[in-house]
């Protein structure tokens, strides 16, 4: 680098080299040169994709989760799921009637149903 700037200066051209050899190699500029020389991108191995997880991420959490678990153990899993399905259907009907009464469109209705499901998970109804 220094040799090319010297020959350029000798030929009558102005040089863009500012500073001495010591500052460009061992001084402040050395860290920037070293940082630029380091690889910035590291290739990672192939990611492993897991299948979709079924179930509630908040299983066992929430205020009503213990009550739901005890009820499921007393009634039995099959009958409990039937009762739960009826309760969810009734709740969806209430949401549908509410949306009709306020004039909400289907997109808003779906948003309310998703919100009800999230709240049910947080409270522990879907434990």
Automatic annotation (TrEMBL):
- Biological processes per GO annotation: photosynthetic electron transport in photosystem I; response to high light intensity
PANTHER family under this entry?
A: PROTEIN PROTON GRADIENT REGULATION 5, CHLOROPLASTIC
**Matching InterPro entries:** PGR5
Gene Ontology CC annotations of this record: chloroplast
Question: Recorded GO terms, molecular function?
Answer: electron transfer activity
Recorded protein name is Proton gradient regulation 5
- Protein's organism: Tagetes erecta (African marigold)
